[in-house]
């Protein structure tokens, strides 16, 4: 997953974005991260038509949480994409 200042373009034309989009569980993960305000999403133009970019907010906090909803904890234990 992306950390700190990294933004990932959610597009099949982007290597990291494709790996995220190809996950069966991406919709569920996205929903959980948005619910707990850990995911920032922007539509940005990057030399072409605007694309959806995602960023993991509060990455250090997300990785170090010990008492949090089990649903969020489950997203931290997913196999790498």
Structure description:
The chain is an alpha+beta fold. 37% of the residues lie in helices and 17% in strands. It has a three-stranded antiparallel β-sheet with strand order 1-3-2. β2 and β3 (51-56) form a beta hairpin. The longest helix is centred in the middle third of the chain and has 10 residues, at 26-35.
Uncertain segments = none
Q: Helix share of residues?
A: 25-40%
Spatial gap, N to C terminus: 8 Å
Total number of strands: 3
Q: In percent terms, what proportion of residues is strand? A: 15-25%
Let me know the average pLDDT: 78
What sort of overall outline do the alpha carbons produce when their principal axes are compared?
globular
In N-to-C order, the SSE pattern is EHHEEHH
Using only CA atoms, what is the Rg? 13 Å
Task: Considering the chains and any ligands shown, give keywords for the structure.
single chain; 81 residues; alpha+beta; 3-stranded antiparallel sheet; 3 strands; 37% helix
């Amino acid at each position: 997953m992306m950390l700190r200042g990294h933004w990932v373009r959610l597009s099949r034309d982007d290597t990291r974005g494709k790996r995220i989009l190809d996950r069966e569980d991406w919709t569920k993960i996205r929903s959980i991260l948005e619910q707990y305000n850990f995911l920032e999403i922007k539509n940005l133009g990057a030399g072409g038509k605007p694309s959806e970019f995602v960023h993991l907010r509060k990455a250090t906090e997300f990785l170090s949480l010990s008492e949090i909803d089990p649903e969020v904890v489950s997203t931290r234990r997913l196999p790498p994409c």
